[in-house]
Design a protein that fits this description.
Layout (H helix, E strand, L loop, with lengths): L4 E5 L4 E5 L10 H16 L6 E5 L3 E3 L17 H18 L4 E5 L2 E3 L1 H7 L3 E5 L3 E3 L2 H4 L7 H9 L1 H10 L3 E2 H6 L5 E3 L1 H15 L4 H14 L4 H16 L2 H11 L10
Helix pairs in contact: 5-6, 9-10
Bound molecules: ligand T3D.
């Protein structure tokens, strides 16, 4: 166990906090391992039906810790290998989680930290937060899914501007561009994020999983394939206990009591 990622159990959800505040929560190998373990624990916990990801201190995450990349001469680090080992499995893991993830971007999100946030299901940001595709400043390529997600979220022109110019983007602009769900005043960001995570934790978790799968698949499917997929996923959704509960609650004019199944 380490304190590089704090994991806190709440009613129906867990809060995962990247916790290297003096380095703006930049990723070391050890922090990746800690996050992986925290995600394993959350998935193993059947009562955990949503996650809230955030950062300790004034930043969300400054991407790769560059002090781990010091001293290039004669000792080139194979960055393909570090993507294979850490960042790619993390992004795939988030996509494949059984529960939705709310990200509360409490401060600057740079490099892989920005793209980690954008890989989450619902992204909230503090008004003072910024998003920085820092990679071009270092001669690197946006990773952690950045080159995939950015054009889809903000379109070609803005994706190219963000990636090639590597300038910080204000949270309010990110919201206006449709890159994130919502901006909140700094003082209320965490309350709002908890409220959302708690609400998601009472929703039909299995159904939400199918929605996330459908939306992910739509990124590459044509309409015909997507219609077939909706048919198949709806078949599965229609066999869940939560669907039966949703219909019963509607007909009985009462709030549903979803169990996540
Ligand atoms: O290598 C691979 O495995 C490939 C994968 C790469 C993925 C990536 O993420 S590459 C991109 C890496 N990240 C960056 O390039 C961002 C670097 N950081 C910054 O540009 C700035 O720190 C920020 C714009 C994020 C914030 O600026 P500011 O002025 O608010 O804070 P600061 O003073 O720069 O940072 C505070 C401290 O955190 C400072 O340390 P100090 O001076 O107090 O001792 C700073 O050096 C440290 N810090 C911030 N980011 C990193 C970092 N230390 C190591 N690595 C960092 N990424």
């Amino acid at each position: 166990p380490t304190d590089l990622v704090l994991s806190e159990r709440r009613e129906g959800y867990r809060v995962l906090t990247l916790n290297r505040p003096d380095r703006l929560n930049a990723f070391t190998g050890a922090m990746h391992e800690a996050l992986r373990a925290a995600l394993d624990d959350a998935v193993a916990d059947e009562t955990c039906r949503a996650l809230l990801l955030t950062g300790a201190g004034r930043g969300f995450c400054a991407g790769q810790d560059l002090s781990e990349r010091r001293g290039g001469e004669g000792r080139a680090v194979d960055l393909s290998q570090t993507l294979d080992q850490y960042y790619n499995p993390l992004i795939r893991r988030l996509r494949d989680l059984p529960m939705p993830v709310v990200c509360a971007v409490n401060g600057v999100a740079a490099g892989a930290g920005a793209n980690l946030a954008l890989a989450c299901d619902i992204v909230l940001a503090a008004r003072s937060a910024t998003f920085l595709q820092a990679f071009a400043r270092l001669g690197l390529v946006p990773d952690a899914g950045g080159t995939w997600v950015l054009p889809r979220l903000v379109g070609r022109a803005r994706a190219r501007g963000l990636a090639l110019l590597a300038e910080p983007l204000a949270a309010e602009t990110a919201e206006a561009w449709g890159m994130i769900w919502r901006v909140h005043d700094d003082a209320v960001l965490m309350d709002e994020a908890h409220r959302l995570a708690a609400r998601l934790a009472t929703q039909p978790t299995a159904g939400l999983r199918l929605i996330r799968d459908a939306l992910d698949a739509s990124e590459t499917n044509d309409l015909d394939r997507q219609l077939d997929l909706e048919r198949d996923l709806q078949g599965r959704a229609g066999r869940t206990p939560d669907y039966r509960e949703g219909v019963a609650a509607f007909l009985e004019k009462r709030p549903p009591r979803f169990t996540g199944g």
